[in-house]
From TrEMBL:
UniProt-listed PROSITE patterns: ABC_TM2 (PS51012)
Molecular functions (GO terms): ABC-type transporter activity
Protein name per Swiss-Prot or TrEMBL: Transport permease protein
Compartments where located: Cell membrane
Keywords from the UniProt entry: Cell membrane, Membrane, Transmembrane, Transmembrane helix, Transport
UniProt cross-references to Pfam families, sorted A to Z: ABC2_membrane (PF01061)
Residues covered by the ABC transmembrane type-2 domain: 35-262
Transmembrane segments: 41-59, 71-96, 117-139, 151-173, 180-198, 242-260
Length: 270
């Protein structure tokens, strides 16, 4: 556990640095584009429109999921995923892409995944607020369930950091890791309840549903959905919540141990 505490301390001591570099990356990402930062919102809006047209109108014929319009059901699962997927992919490459530069200065490389998480959070928060407004207009606002939003935000940040401190460290040593992460994130999109309702699928048996729910991102996607349109508290299924946190801590422990063991040798692998 000492390795986890070491990384937590580094994040806290370098919060100002994380915010400053994260804001710079956000501003510079689309600096040379004619539409500038509009692309930060245009890209996800295009994806939302395409998925709604294909899965909502094309496959489902506009039918709702239970009593929830499919568009809202899709939106509450897709918005978190549009943050999770690119952040995991980009943060997994964060150390390798910067190690040659930061190795020449007194810079804690453990904050590099956090910087990417923060820079992507700005768009995520704006889209999240827009989603809440749209849900309210539809009259499907979750009411009291919204107070558990901070819990799921903390959960998503901790899990992403746990995964990416491991993958970003391994990606310096074995470059194939980055490609593996990209492939897994593409596959995972279709294994999560984002565009289809896993639990109500007649084609899946109970053991298969349980197997899919072992994915910690399943917990987060459903959690954000329950928070935004209501239906369940995070402590209603306390066993599932305990499983999520045990798995997250195990991943973080492995990731922090690997990172601290190899980070002084990262430059040697370039």
């Amino acid at each position: 556990m000492s390795s986890i505490l070491t990384l937590i301390k580094e994040q806290i001591l370098n919060l100002q640095l994380i915010f400053r570099i994260g804001l710079y990356e956000t501003k510079s990402q689309y600096q040379m584009h004619y539409l500038g930062r509009i692309w930060q919102f245009l890209n996800p809006l295009i994806l939302i429109g395409v998925y709604w047209f294909v899965f909502g109108l094309g496959i489902r014929g506009g039918s709702p999921v239970g009593e929830t319009p499919f568009f809202l059901w899709l939106l509450t699962g897709l918005i978190p995923w549009l943050y999770i997927s690119p952040t995991v992919t980009q943060a997994s490459n964060s150390i390798h892409s910067k190690i040659a530069m930061v190795s020449k200065m007194n810079f804690p490389v453990s904050v590099l995944p956090t910087i990417k998480m923060f820079s992507n959070s700005i768009t995520f928060f704006i889209l999240l607020i827009a989603t809440i407004c749209i849900i309210s207009i539809y009259g499907n606002f979750s009411g009291l369930y919204i107070i558990q939003l901070p819990y799921y935000l903390i959960s998503v940040y901790v899990l992403i950091y746990a995964i990416t401190i491991l993958t970003s460290s391994l990606a310096v040593i074995v470059r194939d890791v980055q490609n593996i992460v990209q492939a897994i994130m593409r596959i995972m999109f279709f294994l999560l309840p984002i565009v289809w309702n896993v639990e109500s699928s007649e084609a899946l048996t109970e053991p298969l549903v349980t197997l899919l729910k072992l994915n910690p991102f399943y917990y987060l996607i459903e959690g954000f959905r329950h928070t935004l349109i209501g239906g369940e508290w995070f402590f209603d299924d306390i066993t599932y919540t305990i499983y999520f946190w045990i798995l997250t801590v195990i991943i973080l422990l492995i990731g922090s141990t690997v990172h601290l063991k190899f980070r002084n040798k990262f430059v040697d692998y370039l």
